[in-house]
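WARN no homologs supplied; continuing
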Amino acid sequence: MQTQAVEDYLKAIYELQRHESRVSTTSLANRMEVTAASTTGMIKKLAGLKLITYEPYQGVELTQAGEAIALEVIRHHRLIEQYLAEALGVPWDQVDAEAEKWEHILSNELETRMDAILGYPKRDPHGAPIPSLDGHIPPSSEIRLSELARGQRAIISEVSDHNPEMLRYMGELGLFPQVEVTVLDVAPFDGPLTIRVGDQERSLGREVAQYILVREIKSSS
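OK structure emitted
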């Protein structure tokens, strides 16, 4: 019963678990853009298939079997994104929507060919790690750009692809993976950050900064 809907839900739970150990029905419904009642029905189905553990009012968590399926779909998705961007030149704000159409039907043979042609990439165009064939993603110590203080420097490691408009805006500001940024100032009361990107100063709202993951550059002094 590994249908597209099942795979979509498992992928969403995996991604939400990055920020909350047990995923609430509300969070999952919002991510899937469906009603809470619809989500509850799918949760019961997934629990019956032993792909998640579920306790009413306590949220859900992937089982080992559920995580394996989620990581396989995520590997397909991110590998397709990288192929579309690198081999076909599709803009980075369009690859996510296209990959959604392919991720459930990609054969193992085509996945292997795609991986080899790309040189076995480790990350997709947005910097998100591509799971290995055995379903492994290395642990991360990244933090949000919005968490940095004045004077801190960092390298962008990943940007969220949840909003194509936001991705286009990030691109206009030069906020791509592997780019170095320096926080010049942080306005109080959730105000914007002033950052340096290359030789340019930019003002960046917290709403955008929270969707950019960075690796802090530690001072050598």
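Helices lie at 4-16, 25-32, 36-48, 64-86, 95-102, 108-117, 164-172, 206-209.
OK
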